[in-house]
Amino acid sequence: MVTVGITAPADNGLGGELSFFGFLTSLVLRWPFGMVGSGGGGMAVIIGRSDRRMSGMPTRPRHTALARLGLVLLLLLLLWLVFDHFGLRAQISVASVRQGFAQHWLLGLASFALLFALGNLVHIPGWVFLAAAVLALGRSQGGLVTYVAACLSCLCTFVVVRLVGADALRGLDGRAARWLFARLDAQPVRSVLLLRLLFQTLPGLNCALALSGVGLGAYMLGTLLGLPLPILAMTLLFDSLAHWLHWAL
After folding, report:
1. Could you write out the DSSP letters of every residue in 125-169?
2. Mind listing the pLDDT tens digit of every residue in the chain (249 residues)?
3. What gap in Å lies between CA 226 and CA 189, rounded to an integer?
4. Which residue, 70, 75, 84, 136, could crosslink 98 as a Cys pair with Cβ 3.0–4.6 Å?
5. Would you give the DSSP letter of residue 18?
6. DSSP type of residue 15
7. Which of 126, 125, 129 is closest to 111 using CA atoms?
């Protein structure tokens, strides 16, 4: 007989319940939140935050955390070299975005989202893609396309950086670090939402959240809820500037 038990903290930002989706992503991304044990005729699987994580204290040795951070920096450097070598920066233009969507709308969206994700990993600000999309597609379509691409980009950055760096920032000790992680653990969705309102898809923010140990579900929910307002505001801004300065649409 096999017994599977799942436990989660009372306040994880998602109503205290760990969804089946969260359970699967925990296993896939190998988050160090729990343990698997066996004994007698059964097996128990328990997934939850440790007491150290809930208190904001480091959950891995400092030297391991620094090694993980070094691997992330190396990966980002390699991606930047690849991005620069193949001239992908030239693809971030009004003409290229318009041409991509003119040839095939879905393929154009996929190409734009992929370029957005790669650009985020090499620290190209998201407003560059938003401006190109608004000028190429107009206010409504440009804003909507950017929102979809931005969410996919944030997801891609999270998965890539988390797989390489795990929760390396948890290895940093100090009063400020403990305070920040305690607040993040107490209200992860609200924390991510507020950060998105302030910094949108800032590449450094995406990497920091991926390395902070925040759950994928809370990360994506906060992202989905936090991005629409700033993207709308910047869409209106770029559209107004295009008309005032007579930019080619």
Report:
1. -HHHHHHHHHHHH-HHHHHHHHHHHHHHHHHHHHHHHHHHHTTGG
2. 444 444 444 444 444 434 444 443 443 344 333 333 334 333 333 233 334 444 445 556 677 888 889 999 998 898 888 887 787 777 777 777 888 887 888 888 888 898 899 888 888 888 888 888 888 888 899 999 999 999 999 999 999 999 999 988 988 777 888 898 999 999 999 999 999 999 999 989 999 999 999 999 999 999 999 999 999 999 999 888 888 877 755
3. 10
4. 136
5. -
6. T
7. 129
- Give the alpha-carbon dihedral of 74, 75, 77, 79, to 10 degrees: 160
Three-state DSSP at 123 gives coil
Exposure of 181 in the CB half-sphere (CA atoms within 13 A): 28
Evaluate whether 191 touches 222 at the Cβ level (below 8 Å).
yes
| Backbone phi, psi, residue 244, to 5° | -70, -40
In the block, which residue shows the tokens 């620069």? 84
**Token pair for residue 198?**
């302030």
Question: Letter for the amino acid at 27?
Answer: L
Compute the residue count for the chain: 249
Rg for the chain (alpha carbons), in Å? 20
Burial class (CB in 10 A: 0-12, 13-18, 19+), 175: exposed
Reference 88, options 113, 115, 67; nearest CA is 115
pTM for the whole thing? 0.72
Contact 143, 131 (CB under 8 A): no
